[in-house]
């Protein structure tokens, strides 16, 4: 057993702490794993979406574990979210259908990369990408996709997405978190 010393509440008092040198390193053990961190970033980004039914976030990461882009689903720049519709409406081809205007999170992340080359990067997204986003993913050079939900997986556009990803060898898998809950308490940082 090694004896460590630390200051107690009173600056002039020193406490002795016994600790095994083989087990005490001083490092936190409850830190976020990389994959949990990147998916949490995608989830946090999804909180920016004003879509009342589906909030999606995406995070693109390079091979050095650096975040190079993030995005969420919403209207294009300068298109007022008070003037354009947020509902799907009964007619998919109606000008009152949000899908005529919304930019998906994956597309926004790619567009937000500020010219950074995305070759060989990984995409973390809260929802499996549609066929249109998959085209952009392929063209941008992203090589792996980690998704949280696949709630629309049986729809044709998502089946088409898988077909394209399989054809070009881009890996995708459902993300299983190692931590089920990550709390952000802004009061704790002060």
TrEMBL record:
- The catalytic activity of this protein is classed by the Enzyme Commission as 3.5.4.12
GO BP field: nucleotide biosynthetic process
Which InterPro entries does the entry link to? APOBEC/CMP_deaminase_Zn-bd, CMP_dCMP_dom, Cytidine_deaminase-like, dCMP_deaminase-rel, Deoxycytidylate_deaminase_dom
Question: Is Zinc found in the keyword set?
Answer: yes
One MF term in GO for this entry?
A: zinc ion binding
- Cofactor(s) this protein requires: Zn(2+)
Q: Which residues form the CMP/dCMP-type deaminase domain?
A: 33-165
Region labeled Disordered — which residues?
Answer: 1-20
Pfam families listed in its UniProt record:
dCMP_cyt_deam_1 (PF00383)
Q: Which reaction does it catalyse?
A: dCMP + H2O + H(+) = dUMP + NH4(+)
Q: Which UniProt keywords apply?
A: Hydrolase, Metal-binding, Nucleotide biosynthesis, Zinc
What is the top EC class of this enzyme, as a single word?
hydrolase
Q: What GO cellular component is one of the record's annotations?
A: cytoplasm
Family note: Belongs to the cytidine and deoxycytidylate deaminase family.
Looking up PANTHER family in the UniProt record yields: DEOXYCYTIDYLATE DEAMINASE, DEOXYCYTIDYLATE DEAMINASE-RELATED
What does the function comment of this entry state? Supplies the nucleotide substrate for thymidylate synthetase.
From the Swiss-Prot or TrEMBL record, give the protein name.
Answer: Probable deoxycytidylate deaminase
Organism for this UniProt entry: Drosophila hydei (Fruit fly)
């Amino acid at each position: 057993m090694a004896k460590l010393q630390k200051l107690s509440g009173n600056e002039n008092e020193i406490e002795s702490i016994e600790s095994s040198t083989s087990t005490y390193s001083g490092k936190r053990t409850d830190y976020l794993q990389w994959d949990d961190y990147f998916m949490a970033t995608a989830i946090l980004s999804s909180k920016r979406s004003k879509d009342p039914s589906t909030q999606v976030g995406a995070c693109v990461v390079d091979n050095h574990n650096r975040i190079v882009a993030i995005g969420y689903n919403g209207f294009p720049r300068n298109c007022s979210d008070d003037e354009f519709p947020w509902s799907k409406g009964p007619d998919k081809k109606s000008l009152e259908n949000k899908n005529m205007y919304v930019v998906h999170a994956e597309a926004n992340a790619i567009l937000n990369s500020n010219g950074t080359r995305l070759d060989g990067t990984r995409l973390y997204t809260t929802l499996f990408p549609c066929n249109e986003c998959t085209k952009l993913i392929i063209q941008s050079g992203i090589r792996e996709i980690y998704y949280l939900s696949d709630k629309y997986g049986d729809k044709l556009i998502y089946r088409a997405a898988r077909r394209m990803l399989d054809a070009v060898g881009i890996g995708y898998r459902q993300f299983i978190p190692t931590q089920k809950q990550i709390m952000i308490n802004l009061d704790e940082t002060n």
